[in-house]
Amino acid sequence: MTYCVGIRLDAGMVFLSDSRTNAGLDQISTYRKMIVYEKPGERFMVLLSAGNLSISQSVREILQVEKLDNGDAPALTIWNATSMFDAARVLGSAVRRVWDQDGAALKATGVDFNASMIFGGQIGGEAMRMFQIYSAGNFIEATRETCFFQVGESKYGKPILDRVLTPATPLDEAAKCALVSMDSTLKSNLSVGLPLDLLVYRAGMLASGDIVCIDDQNPYFRMIRSTWGQRLREVFEGIDDPRWDGGDSDHPLIAGSPRFEPMRKITHPGERIV
Fold first, then answer.
1. In what order do the strands lie in the sheet containing 115-123?
2. Total structural domains in the chain?
3. Strands of the chain, DSSP E
4. What is the CATH number of the domain that holds 169?
5. Whole-number Å distance between alpha carbons of 58 and 53
6. Spatial distance between the Cα atoms of 244 and 254, rounded to a whole number of angstroms
7. Region 85-111 average pLDDT
8. 186: containing domain
9. pLDDT band at 254 (very low <50, low <70, confident <90, very high)
């Protein structure tokens, strides 16, 4: 399994992925799930992938040469597309080509065509854009209301992203948030594992920004892992325990309500319960 997150902000974008794959308890391997496509000064694109490794690797290779019919104009590729939307269309076409090649064979052996991706970047003359691509090759775009995407084991890391991120969040704070999200996922799911790939892109650069591979000896991530757990415990301990009798508590657990009452079966002496 895997966990990847892509964040699009006013100031730039953050991409984070783990590197664990497994095909059973005794077949655990490490593979990079982030790849950067760029022509510095002209275009910058990042692809994060989750799902069946053979599918995502095939898509990554085909994407570099995939051509999409463009009517009377030259065929579209990720290298000549004038918008990230068109580049995402090329990626969707690459996904469908892998389906055409391998879908029937995978189905015959009982393997689902399982692939999901995050594709984001910037092409000169256009604002930054980010898309989530599904296994059918269709996609949706990040908006100001939904400024991040997750693929893979998303449920453990989503709460911190929901509570912290807005389009105005500074890039370094968003990178910290993404790492906390990843730490929560690592803590709760063994199918996600180190090392991690983290890339921070600053709007308008049109080239790779800050990028790092994080292993279990990385001092900043070690600090995140210990500090986040400690602070969570401190916050938890600072919340009042429930007061069943109300007492002088401002937040009693039991409060009268005409709408919600416990459901009980009251028995009487001698009554037979069937």
1. 34-39, 43-51, 115-123, 129-133, 139-141
2. 1
3. 3-8, 12-17, 20-22, 28-30, 34-39, 43-51, 115-123, 129-133, 139-141, 148-152, 196-202, 210-214
4. 3.60.20.10
5. 8
6. 6
7. 97
8. 3-232
9. confident
